[in-house]
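Researcher: Here's a chain I'd like modeled. Treat it as a single chain, no partners, no ligands.
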Amino acid sequence: MIPQGIAYAFLAGLPAEVGIYSSLLPALLYVVLGTSRVLSVGPVSIAAIMVASALASPEVVAIGTPVQNAMILALEGGLILCLMSMLRMGGLVHYISQPVLTGFTTGAAIIIVFSQLPKMLGLDLTSCESLQACFIDPSIQINTATMGLGLLAVALLFLMGSPLNFLLSKLKVKKTIATAITKSAPLLSISLGIILVTQFSLDIEHQVAIVGEIPQGLPTPSIEFLNVSLAHMLALLPSAFFISLIAYVESVAIAKFIASVRNEKLDTNQELVGLGAANLASSFTGGMPVAGGFSRTMVNYAAGAQSQMAMLIAVIVLAAALLSVSQTLESIPKAVLASIIIIAVAPLIKVKAIISTWKSDKADGISQLVTLLGVLILGIEEGIVLGVVATIFSYMRRTSKPHIAVVGKIHDTDHFRNIKRHKVQTWEDLLLIRIDENITFANINYISEFIEHEYQLYSPKQIVLIFSSVSYIDTTAVSYFRQLISNLKQQGTTLNLAEVKGPVLEILEKINFVSDLSPGKIFFQTSDAVKSFVK
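Model: Modeled as a single isolated chain. Structure tokens:
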């Protein structure tokens, strides 16, 4: 919690203590109000880069201080989450598709890595919020001492990950002990960095950037940061909305994964309350927006935590550290923090997942790619919006051209399949058409064109529309079918329905469509229609 809190505070462009303060009272509020037994709440990489992006925008830079604006973002985000809870919007997490989320996190992770590389190499560059700003100027000299510390930390973090875990498993070291050793890599790299800086005066002799002063003691709750204008609050509101939404989605995704593994229940609406309260607490204690952190949560899970008591103990230890060793933390090299961030977010760059999505579903692949490129080229918030718009457009395009098939009967069975894919029995005066989608204004034109084309092709006496996959039909579609019935009657053909689901049948009965269908009928099964018309 200590190295990540400080690292993500710097990633957001905030002082070190902001990250630590964000890991205290917010975590306690989640312990009381959250439903996940192991979710660890505090500063996270994705939220931090979104905060950095918000604080770097020209309209925000001109008003308030970074710390004040970060506290306002946490306050507004907490209020938004609490309001969503009151409106029972816990299911909102399902409206951001997995491809969009993967594209977003991959793009954000790439930006984070590029923004931290200069710090790890000792280059005097500010954090960037888009890919164009991340290119390194070759004319700038590299600080070799800083680069050495950064690379040493990267090597330590990497070797204490999978390689050390594999070695310990071969040596049959107890799992809890192995977890304690491998997961202590960030703290160990921080400790080593502090020792090297203080022992060799690297900050003075070689201009190695360090964290600097961290106020000793616990944060004092305050509302002074609210002494701002309404225009100031409104300027930060859009960013607060996106940050809180992504924080909620990320937190629930992590909590759901752990809950499914351990066969536990998770109340997504109550999670809104827990995360909302945590963000409100963060704002009043000098913190930044918080969420459930993947790596910290996995440490909790791997260590065998069975309840939030583990988080409570962690907060107590963190508070004790803040009261006693804050001066020691001042010598942490920023290069080591940058290395911790790079190693932590590197797994979020999911190139294989993007390629796999593209191969399996081109529409999802396009949404994923649009989100990724939007984040890299336009920015964090713009990328999310672009990805969601692309997903909605893809969904509407898909539903506007649903799968429809002329079907026939498989011999000696009561199964009906697509005549283009199976050897089936068909009849000269009977046309069976299966519609595999809800019927609405968005797709009724496509459906009508298909039916009319097949009618002209076969000229049957009876048409049966199979509604086995139709769960909803709107008034626009009903109006079309009424017109179709009238047109078919004039040509001596009758329209029938089969396998109509209860909700659809209720709609049709309420608007007297059943009487309009006469002499056409509604059959319980398709086989009943065939027996009725085929002698």
